Amino acid sequence: MIDVYNAERIRCFQELEKRKNNGSIKADRKAITEFLANARNNDPTKISWTSSLVLSFNNNEPIPQNDEIRTALYRPFCKKHLVYNRKLIQRISKWENIYPDSKCKNLAICISGAGGKKGFSVIVSDCIEERNLLASSQAFPMYLYEKKEADTQLALFSDETDTSQEYTRKEAITDKALTEFRNVYGQEVTKENIFYYIYAVLQSKGYISAYQDNLSKEMPRIPFLKGFSDYVRIGKALADIHLHYEQPVNPEEIGLTIEIDKPDYIVQQMKFPKEGKKALKDTILYNEYIRIKNIPARVYEYIINGKSAVEWIMERYAITTDKASGITDNPNDYGDEKYIFNLLISVMAVSIKTLDLIDSMPEYEEIE
Question: Global pTM?
Answer without folding.
Answer: 0.87
